[in-house]
Amino acid sequence: MNIFVCIRQVPDTTTRIKLREDGNGIDETDIQWIISPHDELAIEEALQLRDRQPGSTVTVLSAGPERVVESLRMALAMGADSAVRLDLPGDADSVVNSQALAAAIDKQGTADVVFVGKEAIDNGAGAVGTMLAVKLGFPCINVVNGIDYGAGSVTCRRDVGGGNIEIIETTLPAVISAQVGLNEPRYATALNIIKAKKKPIDTLSTDELGISEADCKTLLKNFELPPPKQPCHLIEGSPAEQATELVRVLAEDIQAI
């Protein structure tokens, strides 16, 4: 099987975000970049499927500037067979990213299944997987937390709220977006990280992908940081005194609303 995984590099959740002086993006200075957590689930699922299907390969793709090579090498250290960077700007929108990923997959050969994360944690758009499926002409199943593989088909499960589970079956090839609960991503060992640094990573230019600035449909500007959190108010005294004071404070807050 030819298995593909599309990943996005995002700022680490512990990073303190600063805005550029023009307010039209984030200041990337000193940011620690990671693979978006849902994409790690997609990588793990691809690796497990490859191990069950002898002769299969896992190719990881990521669109972005030179810095995304670091995340691609981490995917290689986790166990992926090859990696490809699509040379796009970091602020490319979902339309451009999905178009580039579809073109790159077509260049790599026939895909049997494509895994993505349900959404990236930086913008939470959750649009690339569906757009990619449309451009590839594949069925798409989103927010999946369970998969059973058959002969040329998959049966996927996903929670739809209220304790209900939705079961969807489709033929392959397909695009599947991973949700928490699908698996537990493996850690890359120190030895594999060292080995991954020596592996080649192909790069595809916008010309090779048939992408131009005109394909971008969304422009983000005027970024604003959320307002600072109110300071915490500590209630002191015995448990009984703390309970009485807490009730009083809550009552005042309700009256003020």
Descriptive terms for the model:
single chain; alpha/beta; Rossmann fold; 7 helices; globular
Give an account of the 3D structure.
By secondary structure, the chain is α/β, with parallel strands linked by helices. It has a single domain, classed as 3-Layer(aba) Sandwich (Rossmann fold), CATH 3.40.50. The protein has 7 helices and 12 strands. The chain has a 7-stranded parallel β-sheet with strand order 7-11-6-1-4-5-12, sandwiched between helices. A 3-stranded antiparallel β-sheet has the order 8-9-10, with no helix packed on it. Helix 2 (69-78) links the parallel strand 4 and strand 5 (82-87). Helix 2 crosses helix 5 (190-196) and helix 3 (94-108) crosses helix 4. The radius of gyration is 22 Å and the shape is globular. The chain starts with a strand and ends with a helix. The relative contact order is 0.17. The model has no long low-confidence stretch (mean pLDDT 90).
List strands and helices in order, with pairings:
Blueprint lengths: L1 E6 L1 E3 L21 E3 L1 H16 L4 E8 L4 H10 L3 E6 L6 H15 L4 E5 L10 H9 L3 E5 L1 E4 L3 E9 L2 E8 L3 E4 L11 H7 L5 E3 L1 H4 L29 H18 L1
Parallel strand pairs: 1-4, 1-6, 4-5, 5-12, 6-11, 7-11
Antiparallel strand pairs: 2-3, 8-9, 9-10
